[in-house]
Specification:
- The radius of gyration is 18 Å and the shape is globular.
- It is an alpha/beta fold.
- Helix 5 packs across helix 9.
- An eight-stranded mixed beta sheet has the order 3-2-1-4-7-6-8-5, sandwiched between helices.
Length: 274
């Protein structure tokens, strides 16, 4: 089976890193792709660079995310909502039977999607997550050699991930999603009461910003603004964490494989294209 995979790439002021991110998807060993770049209110040349890239590969399309009134959290004075509306905009037009993401300031090893598709099909999963490693220019444009390793087995099974979703879910959200959404995020973080809104603060395992999942997920799960997130990070953001735990809890058919297929740059700098 060779299903179409939609790769959604939300971007915001990624003019120095975008070509590397796009090249790492364009040159994937898995070829049946559509690549959807979603510009999220960039103020640099990101959108122009993405638009020019369309001439290199007909699989690429560029759209703009809708305006996000929740982009800046006034109390936190931080851009805590970046990406959620862009991801949803990409999901709305995705045609693939399978869907994944690629951030505009990171890169993927060239067999990432091929390996992910193979694992999802082998385990008949709804949703899988694989691992990451720090961004390294020497690894850009390379393939992870799995030939000398034992066949990959999940580090977290559906049962284990479901247990983790409950462990990391706050008491208030367990009792009432409406009440959880009504309480301002900055209030939830106040010492002595924050335990009511945050369960265990363990990270979602692996590279939570590039899961692979089946199209049926779109019928029941979307990315949410910060005020509606059940599994945010304590410092804000956490859109990916919240999305993945939603999928885990809803479908109970998720797996995590500790295979470092994603190059994650937590301090983005200019990166080379392939």
């Amino acid at each position: 089976m060779n299903p179409l995979v939609s790769v959604i790439m939300p971007v915001h002021n990624n003019e120095t890193t975008l070509l590397c991110a796009l090249d790492s998807i364009r040159h994937q060993t898995y070829r049946n792709l559509e690549i959807i770049v979603v510009d999220d209110a960039s103020t640099d040349h990101t959108k122009q660079i993405a638009g020019q890239y369309v001439t290199r590969d007909a699989r690429v399309k560029v759209i703009s995310a809708p305006d996000d009134p929740y982009r800046i959290d006034i109390k936190l004075e931080r851009n805590v909502n970046a990406g959620w509306s862009a991801r949803n905009a990409g999901l709305a037009i995705a045609r693939g039977e399978l869907i994944t993401f690629q951030d505009g300031d990171d890169a993927s090893l060239l067999n990432r999607i091929e390996v992910q598709v193979g694992l999802l099909q082998k385990y008949n999963a709804t949703h899988i997550i694989t691992g990451w490693q720090p961004f390294n220019e020497q690894l850009v444009g390379t393939i992870l050699d799995l030939g000398s390793q034992k066949p990959p087995v999940p580090l977290f099974t559906p049962t284990q991930l479901s247990a983790l979703s409950q462990k990391t879910k706050g008491l208030v959200a367990k009792l009432s999603l409406a009440l959880n959404a009504a309480v301002p995020f900055y209030f939830k973080r106040i010492r002595l009461i924050n335990k009511l809104f945050f369960g265990s603060l363990e990270s979602f395992p692996g590279a939570g910003n590039n899961p692979l999942f089946t199209r049926e997920v779109l019928e029941r799960v979307q990315f949410r603004p910060l005020k509606n997130r059940v599994w945010p990070s304590f410092m804000g953001r956490g859109a990916d964490r919240d999305f993945n735990f939603q999928v885990v809890e809803t479908f109970k058919n998720s797996y995590f494989f500790d295979i470092p297929l994603y190059l994650w740059d937590t301090n983005p700098s200019r990166k080379p294209s392939l």
